[in-house]
Amino acid sequence: MRRFYLFFLLSLIFTNICSCAKLYVLKPEYHSLEEIRLSIKVIKAQPILQAGKHYQFRNYLFVNEKEKGIHIIDIKDESNPKSTQFIHIPGNYHFILKGSFLYADSYRDLVIFELKNNRWKKVGYIKNVYQHRVPQSKWIHQWLRKCRDCSFVYEKVNSARGIVKGWKVVEEHARSGKSRRRYHGPLQAYINLLDRPNFVVYENFLYIPYQSSILIFDIKDPHHPEFIKSIHFEKTKISGLLVYRNYLFINFWYKELGLYQLKEPLNPKQISAVKFSIKRPIVYQNKIYTFSRKFTLKEHVIKNDKLHEINKFGFSKPERRWRRGYYYDPIYSIVMKDDLFFMTFEMYNFQIFKNKKQIFRLYDSPVWPKFLKSDEKTYKIIVTGSYIYLFNPRGFAVLKINDGKNISFIRFIGKGKEEAK
After folding, report:
1. Buried b / exposed e along 195-225 (16+ C-beta atoms within 10 A)
2. Tens-digit pLDDT profile for residues 209-229
3. Quick one: DSSP state of residue 160?
């Protein structure tokens, strides 16, 4: 019995001595705001790595490259789209095209471009309109997968020194004794649950969300936008805006979707609301679609200045995955065309629904080349005419829609093989 206790005591001491957890110190890498503003320009076409918001303008498709800029793609031949230019805008997430003007965010600023003689030229700024989000360190993704007993510390960010564009490990220490994972630093740098909300344009007014408020600018002269007023809402942070006819939809983070009337653009008046809409609404054929927490797509119409629910669509729910310490909704993109619903999910799961029934699932289809099936990255979907463009970090695939069930693979444009059927 004594031997057992002695062995147990020695093993406990040995474990505490040999369990050396590491402490990492991460230092922010600053870039001058003036340098970033000078770097905003139109350059030659670049590869598409992480597609974001898109917009079709004439025979061109504008696709956001998250935090980098906007791709301009020529789609005169929809079966063979070609990237022609890239507007380099560091820190860009959202953009809007109105007439011959393009409005795009860039870290703390909003940049304005004008189309002249088939060339986009920077013509104006709305400076310091956003609060800069501290980016998450890409190095931490590897740390979370490998190190179980480590800790890391972010150095305090000094916003006066400029924009934080990344982090680097400057120190590494060994600590004796067991310890749980610990994190010290700005929460935004660890988990980015809330993307920067989008801005919208209504008539000659620009609406920019800022936390729980909306800033309104007069853009009659886009070269010289003027700030008019700020409207504060006694609710949670704003996660998205949408303008439809003379209505403004405001999505409040994990609380409700509010419907506001814009008869007086400077004084939006709330007339209706929908509880808990996890994504910005989609407007298609005079109907408004919202997503609920239970993975249900709800169909609404506006009657007598009120939002009425008329239908529900239940979809097969993909497996929820655990990533970086929190559950997340795997749906990534949804597009509607005629009576078809095109939806993309995390892990290359692209599905098509018709009359509430799944009629196509890309993962099970022989249409998709084998060399792409192993690419476990999120896809962004764009539908133009009879073609589908599916984006992943290596480029995008072109699919042709013959009917709901008959989809043929045309080509893959980007890094990797190009195959066609």
Report:
1. ebbbbbbbeebbbbbbeeebbbbebeebeeb
2. 988 999 999 999 999 999 999
3. G
